[in-house]
Fold each of these.
Amino acid sequence: MAKDGTTAIAVLNDYSHPESVADYLRRISPPPAYMECGSDVVADQKRFMLRWVGQQSFSRYVGKMLGGPGDSVDRVWEHLARDDNVRELRKGLIYIARRSWRKEQVPPERVQRLGDWVAGKTPLLDPSAHGWALLRAVAQELYRLGTSSSGMMTADELKRRLPSCWAWDAWCMEEPCGEAWIVLKVLSYMVRMCADGGLLEDSKAEVSMISLEAYGNDPSGGIFRSLHPCMHWMLDWELKKLIRTPAEEGTPVEDGLACPLCRTPIQFARKLKWIQVATEAPARRQRAAVRIQARVRMRQARKRVRATKGLEQVPEAYSQPLQETGQVPL
């Protein structure tokens, strides 16, 4: 059950029976009563939300990147539908899911169902199946919620639309690894893949409001703070310098301190560490492949030494630890 008494996110669908887009959106979306309390959720220190560094709303940013109209968005989805990108998407999502399962302590039976779902045993991640269209429909719905119908996003219009986006961000966290949570994680990984490929603007280019440095260039370890309830962002060291005392996770800040950008009083600031999800998993696999190749080459080198020189023991050079590059001493 969700914290407001409504039924939590629906169980995972196997997508074997086509479901209409309207029914699907109605099934996984926050209830109307929940959509109306977005401003309260973002100001509640006991609630948690999906967040994206530098963005006021996770779901709004995902919708903006993948749900808008135009040929550029069509090209993004065509790029994602390539076989190699679909394979990489599945591998990356397994990596994300494993991290989340360990962190959120999801029950084993749900882990198995989620593993089957993310690994591609169901057609959600198959571009030729119905589930792929449902993914894009969710992105379009998020775009609709976070964008003005007139195309002109004023400050007042943004203030009116953000609570609905915050409701989505919080609703997904009501049940981590539930269907709505996974759908937004799928879409977010798509955004990261396309940003790495140069098809979308990279969020690492967002600039800090205080230091005027790009978030991606932060030398202090990539630790950020979301300021509640306005959901603007600061680097962790910037906030500590501003309040002159270390801020623990979710600790209320001093009275009278306001957001440097919008001057909204800050109730609390929540930490988030920048994780290069889109490149971290492939890099780990590449390093593992290098280590495996190095071990194979080491065994082959030892066999050649024994065969040509008849040595009973391997020379000292071959017993040295492998270097980081995985090269074998010759």
Note: Residues 150 and 168 are 22 Å apart (CA to CA).
Amino acid sequence: MFKRVSNLLALSLLLASASVSAAFAQESGSAAIGGSVQVTKHANKAASAWNQGDFGTARDEFTKCIGYDASNPEFYQGVIESCEKLKDYARVTGALEKLFSIAPDKKKFYEYDYGVALYNLNRYDEAVPHLKAALATADITPPPFKPLQVNIEDLNGSGGPSIKIAPAPSGGDNKSSTTTSTKATSTSGGLLPEDTPGVDSETGDAKMARELMTYDNAIRSEAIVIAEYEGYEPSAAIRYNSPPKANFHLVELLKGPPFNRALPVRFAFHIPNASASQAPPGWKFDDKAVMPEKGSKWILFIEWAVPERGQYNTYYGSYGRQPATEANLDKLDRLLESHNMKFLQK
């Protein structure tokens, strides 16, 4: 976290001169590590890199953890902490926005960080309200960020005791549910009917999925492109939770850093929550049934502009891959313009 501003007079001067600063408020704790061996391996690597001051590696490993568990707030905190050390303010804002979307109660602890990051991106008008809001929590001093390492042998299924989940700081929620929502999740064209009343009894995975599966959240991805599907790489290892590498060709960059025209993408078959990760009865890979038509165009919300094992991950699994219909593109354009995110490239 950024160092605490101890002198409120200095804060007032910064706000007056550049409309940038605020009393610091941090909220963290030991990074919660899920029960998956893979996510634990990456979380351990992230913790080790962090403790050695290798913040670039820590950032990348925390990012991989998010690929396995996109609903864990503490993995986003790891990305935020690492990117602040690296002064990678674009990623700080992106990770903070995602953290706020899954754990709104944490926002009050990160107003200062968000404001400073926006300021360093020359987004002064957006920075001021967050820096002023941070004054309200200037007297809060949460514990310093310290990621937790776990012995993999202690994981369930290995004969050892159940893994101990590090308690999430106030505002977090480490729980899951297989409750299924009765609300429709999509309409023709791939748009979520966000104005449809929700189901009050929703809990756990279903509620989280409904809240995350919106374009308003998807546009917080580090990159957004329009791309043409060219095919996939066949493999005997393709399964419901082991999707193929799909090859896309970049048509237009809407947001984010420059990309090569060739875009290898992990073609997720589902969204990343517990209930959706169970393969439907009798599911078998059939490219004619589950893969797009060659030459079709898609909106790809690329969560992080850094490939993992040679592939880019899309926002919230399969949701981050939307048909490039006129309706979808029109909605996306309006949202990008309203948030001043539009990146024009001719």
Note: Confidence is low (pLDDT under 50) at residues 2-14, 16-35, 155-203.
Amino acid sequence: MSNFNKGGFVYILASKPNGTLYVGVTNDIVRRIREHRQGEGSEFVEEYDVTRLVHLERFDDIEQAIRREKQLKPWKREWKLDLIRENNPTWDDLYEEACRTYGRKRGTTGGPFAS
């Protein structure tokens, strides 16, 4: 089964509240955020220390996730900040919650990050 038949995630990382932002897409959120934190896979993330997971959207289809990422990337910064504030007003790091929700039950839907 190819990755294109699996679900996906769109995520926003921040360096700090109201700091530098990074929008990404993946089929494995736990692995991808761990890679970012280890400085793998994105020079931008490593250079600007953008490792706080502040927004997450889950999709049943990776193609939907890719479309959403392409929609969010060109958004004005203020729109992205509004999206984060609407869903995570205290700018909590959502990584541990994502690990609990998606770490072992990969491929399941639902939970706090369901789209």
Note: The first strand starts at residue 8 and ends at 14.
